[in-house]
Design a protein that fits this description.
Elements lengths: L2 H9 L2 E4 L2 E4 L3 H11 L2 H6 L3 E4 L2 E5 L4 E5 L5 E4 H23 L1
Length: 101
């Protein structure tokens, strides 16, 4: 499997709508994505929470994730979150360019 295929599988559930980052996958898909992006020890020791209906959060020192299921808005913060935001935006920009060529 080449790196392009891996990126597609990893980032395929993300999309942009009016500059807002969205997640169209399931909660299970999101949990799998986070598990890939952080170390297993952190993932095992931090639980996903739903502080209100349809909102899911994951909070660790390196990565904080907030996903609103109804609107599909997703927010990635923290050291790892900022890095991921840049990677995802670059991926989506490249994917959009491929679609127009």
């Amino acid at each position: 499997m080449n790196s392009s295929t891996i990126l597609n599988a990893q980032y395929d559930n993300f999309y942009l709508n009016k500059s807002k980052l969205k997640w169209k996958g399931t909660l299970e898909d999101l949990k799998a994505f986070v598990l890939v992006e952080i170390d297993a020890n952190t993932a095992e020791n931090v639980n996903w929470k739903s502080p209100s209906g349809g909102k899911w959060t994951f909070d660790s020192e390196a990565l904080s994730v907030t996903w609103h299921k109804a609107s599909e808005n997703i927010y990635l913060k923290g050291e790892r979150g900022n890095h991921l935001m840049k990677q995802i935006h670059m991926f989506l920009t490249a994917k959009a360019k491929e679609a127009t060529t």
